[in-house]
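Input chain follows. Return structure tokens only.
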Amino acid sequence: MIVHALAALLQTQVPGLPEHRVANIFKPLASPAQSEYEIAVFVIAITTVIFVVVGGLIVFTIVRFRRRPSDDTRQEPPQVYGSNQIEVAWTVIPILIVFVLIGVTARITAGVQNASPPASTVKVTVIGHQWWWEVVYPDFGLTTANEIHVPASPDGKTATYLTLRSMDVIHSFWVPQLSGKTDLIPNRDNFLWIDPKEAGIYLGNCAEYCGTQHANMLLRVIAHPPGDFEKWMAEQQKPAEQNPQMTEAKAMFESLSCINCHTVKGTPAVGKFGPDLTHLMSRETIGAGVLTNTAENLRNWINDPQVAKPGCYMPSMKLTDQELGQVVSYLESLK
């Protein structure tokens, strides 16, 4: 836990672990994030001017009316009533500033929320769990986890619309370079849309404290160049690979209670409590971004998830070395 905290604090990557940090909020790469960046800069500019004016007046007052050696310390300072003009000014001007900020904020918020979807729109449902993200593509019959694959939109003609839900407590979806924070609330649907301008990986995380492993509820939005998203989707829609050499290992996996929590399409594993594992090895991380998806990390994760993610709901199955090896071998075949 200390290693993860230091990695997040220093915004550096620890060898063997995935990136674990907040992305640069001042480098927006989607339309919603750009709008929010512009209003943030506007607010910072106004508050900076206020700070400079107020701070300057304070400094001027301190210097201009400081005590001087020639002052008679026993004499009471002049009792001045004040200035009606100044009092009106410092009442009216802040009110006007507040109304300007409210108006600009309302316009930006309405512009983002009421934007009409482009002709090419991908629909994704994101469901928050303690402490991982379920990702559903309803139009494609696909379910995955923790990595949201979307098409990039360099020309602004493609967008991804997200329906946000929660299965337990309040979570908050936040990918700083793509959009602002939006809560996932039980028994309520919230909505968000993104249109990444560049292909690449966008780091995100849960921004609402949701329990022990809140800080390790990470996610990635992977924006594909034109054409690559369709290829990824076609691969993900295939059933789990049936490798004849994995028959014994597959039987071992199916004999365990793992199948009560996880789904592997085409097998008796139909659990919904944990992430879908049908194409587990196509993902870059495991444990909702806690570990890089390697054979060694996968083995350690299955052996005892509480080491990497204390408090998570996946138990240690207390497998023997042989059983553990078979389960890991089978999961490694799920590409």
